[in-house]
Amino acid sequence: MVFLFLLFLSMEFGEEKSVEKSKKSYRVARPKQTGFSSPATHYTEPRIDLNDVLVVNPSATFYIRVIDNSFSEFQIFENDVLIIDKSLTPKNNQLAVIIKDGCFNIALIDMDSKQKIQLWGVITYIIKNTL
Fold first, then answer.
1. Closest CA to 84 of 101, 59, 103
2. Strands 3-8 and 61-65: what pairing?
3. What is the model's pTM?
4. CA of 115: how far to CAs of 93, 118, 119, in Å?
5. What secondary structure, in 3-state letters, does the chain show?
6. What are the tens digits of pLDDT across the range 78-122?
7. Is the pLDDT of residue 72 over 90?
8. Nearest to 84 by CA among 120, 131, 50
9. The pLDDT value given to residue 21
10. So what's the pLDDT on residue 44?
11. What's the rounded Cα separation, in Å, for the pair 68 and 131?
């Protein structure tokens, strides 16, 4: 069973709420018709499940919605959604979520830096909010 956790970046550690992946099947049965096909047949295409497309390791993947514009230097803005994989080892110049002073922060990984960081997870995707 896969559980996804939604955390907010600017909050202190606290209570986490789990969200269970939907068990509904959105596939539509293909009609068995003869004659002209309906102009609406393209509506019977299966839905794209973003969990299948964007998530490699479901048990170590988390979604975080950004609640302010404090990470604009990384082009991450309010209401963007970050997909974070805790099982990955960060590479140089990769964005990651770190814990600094008891809060979540976003940092660009610099392998040459001597500064110690507490890594929480590696950002694999940023889903931009367009509204």
1. 59
2. parallel
3. 0.66
4. 15, 10, 12
5. CCEEEEEECCCECCCCEEEECCCCCCCCCCCCCCCCCCCCHHHHCCCCCHHHHHCCCHHHEEEEECCCCCCHHHCCCCCCEEEEECCCCCCCCCEEEEEECCEEEEEECCCCCCCCCEEEEEEEEEECCCC
6. 999 999 999 999 999 999 999 999 999 999 999 888 888 999 999
7. yes
8. 120
9. 63
10. 65
11. 14
Residues listed for the chain: 131
- Torsions phi, psi for 57 (to 5 deg): -125, 90
Please give the C-alpha separations between residue 73 and each of 4, 37, 76, in angstroms, as whole numbers. 27, 51, 7
For the beta carbon of residue 106, count every other beta carbon within 10 angstroms: 20
pLDDT tens digit sequence for 6-52 = 344 444 444 455 556 666 666 666 666 666 666 666 666 678 888 88
Pairing mode of beta strands 103-108, 95-100: antiparallel
